[in-house]
Amino acid sequence: MRKNMMVILALIVETGIVAAGPEPRWVRFRDQEYPDARFISSLGMGTSQKDAENAAMNGLSLYFKSTVAVEQKMLSQYNEVVSGDRKGVDRQTRMNTTSVIRSAAEFRGAHFTDPWYNEQNRNWYVLAYINKQEAAELYQNRITANLIMLETALMEIGEPLQQYQAFKRAASIAQFIEEDIRGLGELSDAVSQYRETLEYTRKIMANSMTFRSQLRFSAAIEKDRQGRIQRKLLDVLEKNGYVAVRNQGDYAITGEIFCAEETLSAGVFIHSGISLQINNGAGNLLFSYTKNYPRYGARNQDMAYNIAFREIEKDLEANFITEFNAFLGD
Question: Which of 233, 309, 232, 316 lies closest to 270, judged by CA?
Fold first, then answer.
């Protein structure tokens, strides 16, 4: 009996009967309930409560000349920095903070009214609203805290690749500060005091891109037929904005290709794999990448090796560079 009651309750909540009732005043009289002088508000409607909330947040984001998708991407990058959850960053240099922001609503300082379910058209309604004074204080406090964190990121020292990682973390924080200043400008005249801060954050973001172009990589791969993998590595790095040189780069990519050949009646089959390491000038290991590939075959040896190496090249272009960029915070 208890189980049946729980099922019934779940169905009631899902269909919106719990939220049914008289139409709230904010549906038709939003300007009176949440006047523009004190609030930014947006009415959302959808076939579910979540859809209605998303629609309401999209409306608020338009007010700030942005989109929820763009905000969520920025939040993801920022949260990785402040939570220390970024692959490849040394634990001793990670940011320790509780300022992880879980949603665009939390970022904007938005609140939601209780949802209302319209039984006639079977839609949910929710109002998202921002108290202008409350949000302005939120932005100002967050700008102050993030400027301190930005300075902390820039104080990290080390060899150039580690400095670049620090620049990338700083750039994510700088972008967040800039967005808070932009949001504050929609709410208050207090934004005028942040002109120098904006110049500073924009300089940080520009410097992070300039620093990237100064990182020089060379490659030397053992058992590399006709130097194919070396050329592919350098080509992939260049396409992603790094400087690739054939010899004496600041960072050496070394490694080996492993191939096991098997001759069968159907042809020649190759089991292949690759192991790569990136070391600095002092010989310290900074990044490694290892991958084993499926078996590939062809009528003769040259064709089989050509197919196997082609798959390695595809993997380097798709996966190696993705992991390496993630390691650097890109």
Answer: 309
